[in-house]
Each structure stands twice: as C-alpha cells, then as structure tokens.
C-alpha cells in the first residue's frame, strides 16, 4: 500500500480545574506512530497514525451542550444525558453526571487541580466510546411483560446441547451445556439412551461415533448453572430411547437432582402453558417420541445421497462462515419439490403415540410438562389446534419451509397457543445452522440451533437474544398474536408497508492494535479495514451494505451513513461486520448483531465479537442510530 502522511492533529484544550497529563493524549493507545514494518532485508516502512480525533458530529454535539465553551461541565453533561437517554441506560446505572465526569477523567489519567472537573471534547469522545457508559442497546434489565403463557415468547433454544463439535464423531460432554446456560440459553436438548450394560442412562447422539456422557452428570450441571444468566425457566427436552425400567430410573434421578425446583402439572393435559414469571427459577421437562429421531435419521440418509457434507473445495470452517440463506430462496426451493411432504400420512400418529405411551413408565410420564404430540394424518393437519389442550410440535427446517410456502397463516395460528420447535436438517453434520427468521416470522418459539458451532446464522441468534435483558425469553410482537374478527391472522408472505426507517452511521473503529499482533492482518503494513452493515429479518428488510476501504490504518475513519426501510422492525436484527481487505482472502476483524427494537438512538459505542461470539477486549466502533 502507498504511504500515507500523518493527518494534522487537533489541539487538546484542557478545561479549567484539570491538569493535562501528556500521557492522556494517546489515551486509546492509537495516536502517534503506528509502527515500522520490514519489507525485505534492507528496507523498512514506517506508518503514521490516522486521525483518531472526535468526529465532526461529536464536536457539534459537544459544542451544543457546552454552550460553545471548550469544556463541558457536569451540568452540561447532565442535560446531554437527559436528552439522549444516556442516564441510567447502561452498566453505568445510578451514576450521576459528576460521577461520570470523574470516571472519564480517571480513565484518561487526568486529575483535577482546582475548580470543578469538566470534560474536553476528547474526554467527551472517550465517554461516547465507552461501552459501559454508552452501550448501543438497553442492557441488564428485563423490561417486557413476563406474565403471558410460554407460547407468547421466543425462547433461546439449543439443539443436541451435549455435543462438543460435529454431529457424527465429536465427544459428548456437560461442558457445552454449561456454556449454553452461561449465555442465557433456556432450552437444553438431551438424547438419552441405555448405556452399554443396559442398567443406566447415557447421553449421546445415537447411531453415530459420538462418545457418551452420563445423564446424571448433565443433570447436575444443569442444576448448578441453570440460573446464572437468567432467572427464567429452563426447559429440558428429552429425546427418549429408553425402556420403561430405565425411564423409571430417569424419573427418580430427575426428582433427586432437581427436587423442589422441578415443575410438573397436576393435570394430565394443560389447556394453557404457564408464564415465565410463574415458572421463575424452575426446571421443566419436555419429551419427543423416539419415532421423530428415526424419521430424522431416515431423512438424513436419503439427503446424504444428494447433498455432500461440504461443497467441493470448501473446508468446515468456510462452511460455517458462509452467508445466511435468504428466506425467499429457501421457500422457492421448497415450493419446487413435490407436495408429498405436506399431504402424505405421517408415521407418528396419535394411535402410534398411544401405543408407545402404554409402555411409558407412569412416574416418568407424570413429570412431563410440555408434551410433544404429532396428530395422526398429514403434516398440514398437525397444525390444527386442540381447544382442550396445548402441545409442542417439532418440524425440521425443511418441513417448515415446505409448509410455509402454502400454509404460513396456519403456522402463525398454531403458535398462538401451542409450541413449535424447529430443528436443523439431518445433513448439517458439521453443526452449522440455518436462517432463524423463517421460524420467527411464523411465530415458532423454539428455533433450535447448534450452539457449539459458529458462523453468521449463530451470530444472528446471539444478537436476537440480547433483547429483554438477555434473559432468553423475548416476547413475540403483537401482530403474531392477534386474530382479526374474521379469523384471519398475520400472513408472513403478504406485502407490508414500511413501518419505520433506521439510519445507521459508522464513524470510526478502534482497539485492534491492542488485541492483535502488529502483523496479524498484514506482514508489511497496517490493516486495510472496511465495515459491512445491514439488516437481517423478513426478506423485504434483509440487506447488507459496505463502507469504503480505509488503507494502512489501525483506526479506520469511515464516516458513512446507511438507510434501512423496515417493514417488520419488531424482529429485525442489525448486522455489523468488519473485515480487512487482502489480495487472496479478506481477514475477519469482528462482528456483532443487535436487536433493532432495542437500539438506543444517538451516538453509541458498539463492541465487537470474534467469530465464536466472544467479545474482544478492546475492539469497538462508534456509530449513530436514528429512527425516522
């Protein structure tokens, strides 16, 4: 890359009453020289820092609330916080303006010498760039009504929660279960099988090479970590492959491990599910018949003949990093296939289920709160509600797409009272995931994901459940729960008007120089960063945009704005990615996904995460959100 001259720096004006510590000027560690890179044996290249000073919008905001003065007093800051919704909106809850001023000055190593402490424009920039004091979304607090039935919520759901890696040969362990609970996942799936001696229960992915883990170990870990991230109920979905005598052992085991925190109803069938609030601090059980597992396995074997594990020349890591499939494309593919799936008789009918239930241990059956039922007949008939009882239905991602092409409103209507669980197709051997919005836009509560993988689909899932304080329960929008007087419900395929427009401006990014080695992105020069900003949601709203590439700069300044008209903002997620342009393949520089409905308007600090969803220590962007 060509050399870039050092941009002229703006003068730093300390306010009255503060002592300007020269070490505080490069407070972010990115001003000054960026470093020297060796190009060959005899030559080195020296690069200067870019302009990391406050953007013009930040300067204008500072001038507005400081009254044009070169410093901002605590009273001025208090007015800004009140106007921007900044006071008490993030981790800095309860901190008044004076405390915030003192904290900023302390973090920038600047101590008052006389008079009242005040902020310079660079101090103000530091405040805005603080993810603790100025987060992009409402954090830490549950703010939605938690007293509606469980069917009124999207629930953070895992699939094969015990697997450490791929679906065929990875180890089974309680470690991924613990990790899932620590990030707020509320539905844990366990496949339970007889152990080798047929006298105890193992958890494993049956008929594969996965190494088992004992059920008792998984249950104990669930009890220990169930409520570390959220007080709301944990649902354990048991895929049961046991004989009645082993089911009796499971019943005893569950009661001994969970004791009083295990909830189960007195009545045989529920007419309405309890609320998350009513089940606060409780564990509940749900089962699915083994027949579903066998159907999925048969389907997997058939699909394996026509769909390879990876596309030609594609590595496992590359497969996880592919773009999330478009909902419209998935529906079109599903519509091209024959209609057998919709109308053929299903193997798992009520008659078969009743036959299986005759062989279910009574003490085990009594503990099941959410019963999985698959009515006899065609798949479309499975979406009919029973006014006398509620149940849970499970569909593969392919089954959902097929039904959604012709019967979208039927799915929405079913999910107003009943639970719908969507699970990955059988050919996702590498534990990849699908587009979750196909389930969410139809009201599916349990969109089950492989949490042990990573990639863009999982980033969306993680971002979506940052809503409502990250408690793992997000209330479904009203339009999914409403029934018109004529009996009609929301049609996911209908053309909808724009409800609101979101404007997103990307100012600057920083922190890579702290978190990465100097030559991580390029051996011979600083990185060439660009950002991608977009929306994930219904097809009309889904789009990705890209900024310019800022060459040879650890502190890229983009100052670019994007406009996103939204038809269904209630479930939309803002996507942000940063990449480093390279000749062969662009390098990954960070990502985040944020629920649009939770965005705080104004200029905010946006921390970025790695490809596994772990937050970087220092990497973040300064962005502005505006709804019009």
Shape: globular
* Helix proportion range: 25-40%
**DSSP helical segment count:** 18
Seen as an oligomer or otherwise, the chain set is single chain
Query: Which stretches are poorly predicted, pLDDT < 50 over at least 5 residues?
Result: 1-32, 88-94, 291-316, 347-357
User: Mean pLDDT, rounded to whole units?
Assistant: 85
Number of strands: 22
Distance between the termini: 40 Å
Strand order of the largest sheet: 7-6-5-8-9-10
Q: Please outline the major beta sheet.
A: 6 strands, mixed
Radius of gyration: 27 Å
Structural class: alpha/beta
Strand percentage lies at 15-25%
Which key features would you list for this structure?
628 residues, alpha/beta, six-stranded mixed β-sheet, four-stranded parallel β-sheet, 21% strand
């Amino acid at each position: 890359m060509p050399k870039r001259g050092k941009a002229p720096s703006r003068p730093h004006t300390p306010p009255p009453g503060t002592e300007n510590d020269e070490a505080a000027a490069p407070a972010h560690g990115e001003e000054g020289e960026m470093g020297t890179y060796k190009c060959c044996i005899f030559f080195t290249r020296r690069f200067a820092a870019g302009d990391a000073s406050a953007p013009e919008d930040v300067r204008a905001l500072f001038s507005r609330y400081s009254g044009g003065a070169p410093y901002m007093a605590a009273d001025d800051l208090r007015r800004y916080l009140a106007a921007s919704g900044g006071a008490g909106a993030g981790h800095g809850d309860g901190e008044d303006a004076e405390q915030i001023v003192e904290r900023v000055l302390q973090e920038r190593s600047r101590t008052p010498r006389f008079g009242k402490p005040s902020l310079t424009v660079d101090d103000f920039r530091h405040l805005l760039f603080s993810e603790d004091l100025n987060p992009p979304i409402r954090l830490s607090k549950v703010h939605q009504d938690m007293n509606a039935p469980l069917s009124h919520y999207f629930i953070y759901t895992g699939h094969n929660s015990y697997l450490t890696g791929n679906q065929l040969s990875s180890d089974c362990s309680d470690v991924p279960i613990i990790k899932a609970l620590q990030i707020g996942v509320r539905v844990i799936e366990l496949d339970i099988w007889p152990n080798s001696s047929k006298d105890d229960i193992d958890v494993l992915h049956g008929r594969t090479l996965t190494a088992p883990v004992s059920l008792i170990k998984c249950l104990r870990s669930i009890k220990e970590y169930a409520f570390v991230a959220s007080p709301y109920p944990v649902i354990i979905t048991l895929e049961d492959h046991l004989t009645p005598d082993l089911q009796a052992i499971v019943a005893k085991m569950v009661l001994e491990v969970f004791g009083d925190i295990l909830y189960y109803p007195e009545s045989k069938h529920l007419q309405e599910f309890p609320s998350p609030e009513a089940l606060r601090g409780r564990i509940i059980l749900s089962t699915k018949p083994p027949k579903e597992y066998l159907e999925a396995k048969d389907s997997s074997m058939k699909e394996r003949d026509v769909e390879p594990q990876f596309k030609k020349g594609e590595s496992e890591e590359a497969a996880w990093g592919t773009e999330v499939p478009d909902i419209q494309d998935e529906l079109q593919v599903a519509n091209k296939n024959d209609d057998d799936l919709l109308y053929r008789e299903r193997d798992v009918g009520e008659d078969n289920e009743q036959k299986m239930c005759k062989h279910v241990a009574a003490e085990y059956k009594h503990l099941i709160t959410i019963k999985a039922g698959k009515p006899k007949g065609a798949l479309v008939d499975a979406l009919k509600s029973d006014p006398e009882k509620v149940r849970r239905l499970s569909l593969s991602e392919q089954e959902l797409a097929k039904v959604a092409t012709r019967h979208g409103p039927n799915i929405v209507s079913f999910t107003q009272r009943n639970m719908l669980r969507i699970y990955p197709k059988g050919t996702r051997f590498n534990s990849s995931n699908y587009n979750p919005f196909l389930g969410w836009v139809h009201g599916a509560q349990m969109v089950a994901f492989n949490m042990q993988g990573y990639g863009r689909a999982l980033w969306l899932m993680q971002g979506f459940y940052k809503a409502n304080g990250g408690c793992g329960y997000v209330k479904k929008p009203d339009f999914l729960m409403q029934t018109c007087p004529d009996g009609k419900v929301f049609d996911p395929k209908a053309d909808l008007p724009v409800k609101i427009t979101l404007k997103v401006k990307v100012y600057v990014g920083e922190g890579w120089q702290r978190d990465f080695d100097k030559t991580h992105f390029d051996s011979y020069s600083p990185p060439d960063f660009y950002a991608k900003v977009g929306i994930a949601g219904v097809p009309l709203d889904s789009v990705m945009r890209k900024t310019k590439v800022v060459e040879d700069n650890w502190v890229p300044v983009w100052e670019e704005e994007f406009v996103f008209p939204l038809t269904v903002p209630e479930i939309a997620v803002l996507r942000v990615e940063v990449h480093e342009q390279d000749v062969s393949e662009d390098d990954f520089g960070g990502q985040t996904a944020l629920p649009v409905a939770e965005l705080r308007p104004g200029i905010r600090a946006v921390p970025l995460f790695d490809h596994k969803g772990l937050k970087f220590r220092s990497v973040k962007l300064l962005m502005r959100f505006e709804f019009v």
